[in-house]
Amino acid sequence: MFWILVFSLFIGNVFSEDVRIVSLDIGDLRGEKYWNGDFYEFYGVPYATAPTERDKFKAPLPVKPWEGIKDAKEQYISCEQIYLLDDDSDEEIILDGMEDCLTMNLFVPKVANEDNLVPVLVYIHSGAYSGGSGNMAKFNYLARHDILVVSFNYRLGFKGFACLGTEEIPGNAALKDQLAALKFINKYISKFGGDPKKVTLAGFSVGASMAEILALSKATNGLIDKLILESGSALSPFAVNRDPINTAKNLAISMGYNNTEKIEDLNEFLLNAPIKDLAVKSKNFYLTNSTFGLAPCIENVIGTAEPILTESPLIIFHKGGYEKIPVLTGFSNMEGISRTIKFDEWSDLMNEKFADFLPADLAFDNDKSRNDFINKVKKYYFKDEEVTHDTVQGYIDYFSDSMFKYGIMKSAKLHAMKSKKPVFLYEFSYVGRLSFKHYFMDRIKGASHRDQTSYLLDFFEFTNEADDMNTRDRMTAMWSDFVKYEDPTAYESLLIDLKWPRYTNDKQDYLEIGNTLKKKKDLFQNEFKLWDEVYEKYYWHPMPVVAKKTVNKK
């Protein structure tokens, strides 16, 4: 009687609607139906193997097959990182995450199967290149629209972004993880019910910057067919490290490296550095030059390794040799609110030496050129007054424009210029319970950096406000319709009562996403002109890293 009961439960579990088993040539996976939606969740699915020891900075290795059926339930896998602590904290710094972390999560609609393939949406997470994971949000609000949604982990900090141009530390390990994830999806997604020919790559913040870099790379040809960018671009000042060897050298010195000015010594030091120390020194959320310290680099081709990025993204745009795909891109109306955390400290420093707060991707030919531009900035954003609490809106607008909006708009214009595929541009202005909380909420109401993503995904925050839920319903419907039809307003509804017009450089239409949807024109026009004039003259094109003697530069 006992064995009959066990057998009945086993049969019921495998073939009930609460479970789906997917068979791959590397092993079988068991996913469970989400408790409040018609889709199955597969967590912790290995897509590659992280190399170890002296190979830990290299491209990922193939996934290791497994025996039997793997329960895809591991929701808390992340790559090695540390959490920020106060500078004066006495708490012990704890390394979180694991080395063998290259896993993905798949949210598979009930209607999806090998005979009914559905479009796929793949998200690259944010975290300033040193934190976050594919589990930092839940994707149920998008998955309920009958698209297959994927998130994944990639190596973080110096493991993911150290770049010396040497055989052991060639650079862009994180981007190579992301490429491996896309190749895994291309090979296996049909087994889950996803269409490998309809894969939209999306990202938020630095995830958006990396998504666009991948879209511009020949390495991803045939792997993605649409692109969604939320508050980031390959042309953002934080998107590419212009001096990765000195970034690595300065980190090593902070860890006790005796700077010998020899690349082989720096290479050896990083290969033997404790991962905890590397993770601690990788955290740079707030640098004055609008970067995060670490970032992808321009690679040299080393041996048979497949490079991701071998030219400046702007040069790739101008050459036009990348695959042309539809793009949905935009930003929040006050991205710079995210920088107000440092306002009290930075306002004084900006008054003392504003040059330290210019974007890192500008390289002026002399002091006069730089100072002339600083004077323009001070006049435009601060009306020639000091940076104080009275001019905090100018502070917010300055960082909104310099760190985020200019690069995103430049990217949108280039996509529209170089491609016949549709470009859809938005500005997100909605403020609700899920929006970023800041010190100036009594005076300033606007959407901060990455706020739009808080309504698309679920960052484990709760709201029952009708306007919040309407905004979420609007946005997830538009994003999923773009994934399905290349048209974010393919179908009108009570919440979506207009057509989102394509952006072109002639008409410059865009959609404002606030309490309602509004069609508008000429987004960021005056500010773009101000910044474009200086970038046309002084843009610092990143160059391939050269493994020579380290440069003695502070």
From TrEMBL:
One GO MF annotation is: carboxylic ester hydrolase activity
Signal peptide range in chain numbering: 1-16
Domain Carboxylesterase type B, chain residue ranges per copy: 20-531
> Does Hydrolase appear among the keywords?
yes
What UniProt keywords apply to this chain's record, in alphabetical order? Glycoprotein, Hydrolase, Serine esterase, Signal
Q: Which Pfam families match?
A: COesterase
Q: Report whether GTP-binding shows up as a keyword of the record.
A: no
- According to its UniProt record, which protein family does this protein belong to? Belongs to the type-B carboxylesterase/lipase family.
- Protein's recorded name: Carboxylesterase type B domain-containing protein
Biological source species: Spodoptera exigua
Organism lineage: Eukaryota, Metazoa, Ecdysozoa, Arthropoda, Hexapoda
